[in-house]
Amino acid sequence: MRDVYQPFAVVRGAESALIMNMETFRLKRLNVYDNLFGANILCITGLLVMPALLFNPNTVTRVFQFLFFLLIAWLSGKKINLLVTTAVIIGITFFNLLVPYGRVLFTIGSLKITETALLTGIRRAATLEGLIMLSKVCIRHDLKLPGTFGELLSESLRISSVLMSRKYRIRPKTILTDLDNLMIDLSNDSTPITHNVKHHTKPAAYVITGLIILISWLLMIWK
Q1: pTM of the predicted structure, to 2 decimals
Q2: 65, pLDDT greater than 60
Q3: Is residue 193 packed enough to be buried (19+ CB in 10 Å), middle (13-18) or exposed (0-12)?
C-alpha cells in the first residue's frame, strides 16, 4: 500500500522544493531591489512614467507598457498573482463588451463582440493593471514625506507592505476572530518605521530608472 502512494509523495516533495526555491529566488531579487533603490527615486520615477501610460492612445503599445511594468515588478521581487491579474483583465474586458459599440467582429449567442468595445476594454484593463504593477515597484513603505500627512501615509504604506508580504485569510464564519488576529499581528509587527531605516540610491539605480522612463515614453510615441 505504501508503494502505491510513494509516487504521489515524491511529486508533492518535488513541488514543495520548487516552491521554496522560487520563493528564495524572489527574496534575493527583492533584497537587490531594496539595496539598490531609494524610496524617493522610485516615487519620482513612478510620477514621470505614469503620464506615458495614462495618455497613451494606442491600445497595443499600452498593453506592452503593462507587460513591461509586470516584468519590472517581477524583477523587483514583488509578489504577483498572475491568476488574479488575468481574471481582472478578462473581467474588465468582458463587462465592457456588454455595451456593444463599433464594428461587429463576431457574435457569441446574443452577445455581439464589437471592435471598439473590445479595444476599449483591453485598454482599460491594461491601464488598471499597469498602474497596479507600477505602484508595486514605485511606492515603498519607507517613502518619507514631510508633515503629519506624510507620517500617516508612511504608516499606511508600512501596513500595506506587511499585508502584501503575508497571507491573511478572512473567512465569513470567523470574520471577527480573523480580523482581531490580523490587528494583533499588525500591532506586534516589527517592520522598521520610515524614519529609522533609509535606503540610499546607488549610482546604477539612476541608470536603470532612466532607462525605465525612456522605454515607457518610447512605447507611448511608438506608432
Answers
A1: 0.79
A2: yes
A3: middle
